[in-house]
Design a protein that fits this description.
This protein has 129 residues and is an alpha+beta fold. The chain has a single domain, classed as Diaminopimelate Epimerase, Chain A, domain 1, CATH 3.10.310.40. The chain has 4 helices and 6 strands. A 6-stranded mixed sheet has the order 1-2-3-4-6-5, with helices on one face. Strand 5 and strand 6 form a beta hairpin.
Length: 129
């Protein structure tokens, strides 16, 4: 049992280190830039504590879109013009589900996922003007 716990601890630490490295790489190259807002699409489940720790690596005005699996999404806005919670509520209204947050960070579990989450977010930003 002790050996298994040590192995589990080692594996969890490795996963944390890999998440940090991946976020460092992702932060250097936005998936898309819409109206001068860099959008970063993260399609793996990463602990919010790690994201918060790495948030300073992302440019100002960034919007992070995290698809966490199991129809769960998280939006993190470093941008005063994009309200993460208001944007998320549009997805909840369109795709049904539950969730919420604040202008900087919001998460939801949707009944149905959009086919292309990044494109839908782009459309919401463009329609906002």
């Amino acid at each position: 049992v002790t050996k298994r716990l040590e192995t589990l601890g080692y594996t969890q630490n490795q996963q944390k280190e890999l998440s940090i490295k991946l976020l460092e790489l992702i932060s250097k190259s936005p998936s898309k830039i819409v109206n001068n807002f860099p959008l970063f699409y993260i399609d793996f489940n990463v602990d919010i504590k790690i994201i918060k720790k790495m948030l300073s690596n992302f440019p100002q005005k960034s919007l992070l879109i995290v698809e966490m699996g199991n129809r769960k999404i998280r939006l993190i806005s470093k941008n005063g013009k994009i309200d993460a919670n208001k944007l998320l509520q549009k997805f909840i209204n369109k795709y049904k589900g539950k969730g919420g947050g604040n202008p900087k960070s919001a998460q939801a579990e949707l009944e149905k996922m959009p086919e292309n989450l990044l494109s839908e977010i782009e459309q919401f930003i463009l329609s906002k003007g």
